[in-house]
Amino acid sequence: MPAFIAGLPLHVLIVHAVVVLVPLSVLATVTIAVWPAARRRFGWIVVGLTAVATICIPLATSSGEDLRDRLASTDLIRQHAHLGDQLLVFVAGLLVVAFALVWFDRRPVRIKALAPILSVLVVALAVVSAVQVVRIGDSGARAAWTGVQYTAPQRHGDEAAK
């Protein structure tokens, strides 16, 4: 996998898929966990969305490792990488439990106690996944922007001549 596309780190591009798809999966899985009608109508779509989000995570971590290998090692980068490595466990768990919830809900003979248990697990994994995405994003922003000095806006071209 290339580390850069048109001079931009591939990680920066791929991570946006994770930043969008994981929270969207979190909202969708919580919806099907607490609303049985939505589960019956949209359950498999939500499972598919969560599967795509799950697939994007190793792509983001792999591209992040490629970028990390080209940067000076810092504590902030190491912390970001450590947090990023944990996300797959949570989102993959969310995928498995959401799949089980939708699958068992479609069975002709339902076990009454199973749906509430799986729903609670879905909500718990969704919350943990959402919190982890925020933690990873915050640590990545700190790693990228700590020490950057901002200046007042500069006038360029015709504006400077006025």
TrEMBL record:
<feature type="transmembrane region" description="Helical">
    <location>
        <begin position="87"/>
        <end position="104"/>
    </location>
</feature>
<dbReference type="InterPro" id="IPR019251">
    <property type="entry name" value="DUF2231_TM"/>
</dbReference>
<dbReference type="Pfam" id="PF09990">
    <property type="entry name" value="DUF2231"/>
</dbReference>
<feature type="transmembrane region" description="Helical">
    <location>
        <begin position="113"/>
        <end position="134"/>
    </location>
</feature>
<feature type="domain" description="DUF2231">
    <location>
        <begin position="7"/>
        <end position="147"/>
    </location>
</feature>
<feature type="transmembrane region" description="Helical">
    <location>
        <begin position="42"/>
        <end position="61"/>
    </location>
</feature>
<keyword id="KW-0472">Membrane</keyword>
<protein>
    <recommendedName>
        <fullName>DUF2231 domain-containing protein</fullName>
    </recommendedName>
</protein>
<keyword id="KW-1133">Transmembrane helix</keyword>
<keyword id="KW-0812">Transmembrane</keyword>
<feature type="transmembrane region" description="Helical">
    <location>
        <begin position="12"/>
        <end position="35"/>
    </location>
</feature>
